[in-house]
Amino acid sequence: MNKVIITVVGRDTVGIIAKICTYLADHGLNILDISQTIVQGYFNMMMIVDMSGTDAVFSEIADELEALGTSIGVAVKCQREEIFESMHRLSTQM
Amino acid sequence: MLHIDQKEVLATNTMIEKENLDVRTITLGISLFDCAEGDLSTRCRKIYDKITSKAENLVRVGEEISREFGIPIVNKRISVTPIAMIGAGVCRVPEDYVEIARALDRAAGTVGVNFLGGYSALVEKGMSQADRLLIESIPDALSETGVICSSVCVGSTRAGINMDAVHLMGEVIRRTAEKTKEQDSLGCAKLVVFCNAPDDNPFMAGAFHGVTMQDEVVNVGVSGPGVVKTAIESVRGQSFDVLCETIKKTAFQVTRVGQLVATEAARRLEVPFGIVDLSLAPTPAIGDSVADILCEIGLSEAGAPGTTAALALLNDQVKKGGLMASSSVGGLSGAFIPVSEDQGMISAARSGALCIEKLEAMTSVCSVGLDMIAIPGNTSAATISGIIADEMAIGMINGKTTAARLIPVIGKGVGDEATFGGLLGTAPIMPVSKASCEAFVSRTGRIPAPVNSFRN
To answer: What is the CATH number of the domain that holds A64?
Structure first.
């Protein structure tokens, strides 16, 4: 599995999740987990996404998601899961 | 395995975005022994060809990894076999070595790295003719090239200190300063004098590819003073036990990122992974300072009484936390205290809280040594040699790496400041003792290797 963490941070508005999810569906990216909170009016979302179903290049997906985020006024960041696992899990495959 | 949760993701990204967590350097070590054949122009061509083919993808791979993990990788660099050995036999005058320096500089420019280290000589036991020629060529090599870094190892615990080389380096540093005086003697910022130089150091200006190493290797230097500082803010006023635990845990996390990047870079470059260097390397950016950690530990300024103890504690916890996080640790591994590259050190030097003598004491407990210290432009070569000898003695007796990177800023004195730009920062000129050591450094030969028993 090729897991990617997508984080979305910004002022809460209608349709943030819808737009991001539509993009992911269109590109064959499967969502494994979503968590979302609102802190002081700020929207915080994290998704774990499996990229193994797509042929797309990581940097293209990351660039497009960032651009999509900018168009709806939120900051979107894509990172491979390993960086979080390596920092927060003792046993990890490296 | 449990999924990563949102808090953990947020914690990592806060470290990256707000606390300057980064991977300081991916350094590709390249052996040049197979370029040491033929005449000078053949060797220069072979060196250029080898570096540009082996390091062709280094910068691109660094940028890809940075993009995919969302972690800045600040520098992509190259270290090579000490050049004194590669030019031996064909370099007849110092200018011949400068020709090799130019070839290295062109190669570095072609592959897009920001520094290339290894314009070096290892002379702790004695200087060969080739070593001497390379050392004498350093002022021209550093003033005529852009990204070449030079280091000379003049001492070790096993060999003692080569005082002839120490004497020579005082003069070489002065000449380098003179030749680059238009840029605040910047050449000296790219020149390190070592005792017990490590073979696998990824950090500049002292990186070179050790002679006992394989053909190529990837070494990674991590950083993260800002992350440590923020972590220990949460335990302000608590016991040393709690403080040390906090530093260790943070160092573990920072090092794991370095290990991940190193493994990934090695795989993509198809080069063996060498080591992760656990250093806390500051930058002049606000919030990226080792001095600020010392202040958070409880000092009003770096240089206050207690500074050496606080630094010893910090250095040791960084190693303890980092060691478990990497499969192979090496290089310098400790807290760096370069004055010009650390905002907190700069302020402490400006206010007078930090002097060269205190810095010298600090170097006995942390990695490296008297680093990026600007001294008056009229400091004599003998005095520079004396300061180097003191620093080398600390390394030799304590069995650790020490180094001196001193910058006599031509045309400036105490009260002035030197500006080197970028990561090299700004340094107030620090006063140097006026007492003379001329007769001491003029003696010839070596200070013998120390006894390793009766350790008092």
So the answer is: 3.30.70.260
